[in-house]
Amino acid sequence: MIPTTLRDLAVLTGGSLHPGLCNRPTNGPTNGPQTVQHTAMLGDLVVDGPVTTDSRQCRPGSLYVARVGEYADGHDYVESAREAGAVAALTSRPVDVLPSLVVDDVEVAFGRVARGVVDRAPNLTVVAVTGSSGKTSTKDLLAQVLCVAGETVAPVDSLNGEIGVPLTVCRVTSSTRFLVAEMGARRIGHLRYLTGIAPPDVAVVLNVGSAHVGEFGSRENIAVAKGELVEALTPDGLAVLNADDPAVAAMAARTSARVVTTGVREPADISAREVRLDDAGRATFVLVTAQGERPVRLRVAGAHQVGNALAVVAVARECGLDLDLTVKVLGEAAAVSRWRMEVVERTDGVTVVNDAYNANPDSMRAALDALHAISTATTPARRSWAVLGEMLELGADSRAEHEQLGRRAVALRVDQVLAVGAGARPIVEAGSTGSIGSTGPASGSGRWVPDVDAAYELLRRELAPGDVVLLKSSRDAGLRWLGDRLVGLEVPQ
Q1: Which of the 8 DSSP states describes residue 232?
Q2: How many angstroms separate the CA atoms of 484 and 339, rounded?
């Protein structure tokens, strides 16, 4: 974090300072924690270490953010934060063991702290990414490309909400050149709030799908929410919009900024042609731009990564990167965040594709397409398994979407479909002509098991050398841990 005094943080947040044991002397050395007795002295304390909501991650100079969550009260861990080196805590009530900045709402105040960091960063370009799917993969690619041009801060995993965005922003230092902010939306107004914390210079909208439709009520409402990202741009900013998604393309009318379009199927400013997948599901394509055409070979798996890569090219061009350098680094960029199209080849020849961090109808279809590409890239084709869990937060459309997923697996001639958990059962119970388990040349074998343990035992018995097995579900369905078990990784108990 850019060094900031508690006095300045109090001004930013509107909070009040309360004394406590101090880990850092304000006027002269000390052999250990001392009591801060005066507000003036307290205000001189400097936060220059990590800002965190986890007391175990505190270091010397840290600000500990004491959230009150669903399962724990962060105030109970302030002493642990002090022992780890924190100099102050952001709290909703005074604490004795550490100087505290007391505010009415810790979450809101944390956002204001982060906004203060953005405003004090001298040469910062903020790139914000949203979409119903692909946000994390795109921000990982962006971070790897932009870092060749300057110090870059990007989220760890999928920190994209009211707490995650400030946590990422507070890692910015005075030398940070690029901030990549992943922004998720669970309601209308959410992105408006997040862009108030980190106002974007470049905004990327990948797609508008059915993720969280149960919360939003309709795909149209999701489009309204996602469009708040481009509405936050100034006329000097840039909106990167996916021309293949009509709901995203229509957002050009909602911004005063410049617009660059990307597309694989539709005409666009930056596009791809001749897209092909290799036997590991990795895409090659010809990149088409106003600066010329370039061959691209990606290391990350899935045809959907092509659209993500086009967005990265658009951002890189805006940030001043040379096209050839961008293509080179894109070709070297690897999957960073866990459980996103992780492809592991076991010693017995079984290929495990673990894409079970999250799921919605669009990303499910993309994952099945990747499974098809990997399993049919060789002759003879390899036996394919789709191990599918529930897609959450789909509302009234849930059963129909799961049934449609089963029909998609049939159309792609997936050999074995294993639905895991009660919510996933409709995948193999579609009941219509051509559904899984029906007779006919396009039908596959569809089975259901009640939980992850049952799925593991079935797969342990039946997987054979050469098989390709995809694991895909919403995060809370737990299939990501099943994927780890299949490749011999330790999983939490």
Answers
A1: T
A2: 9
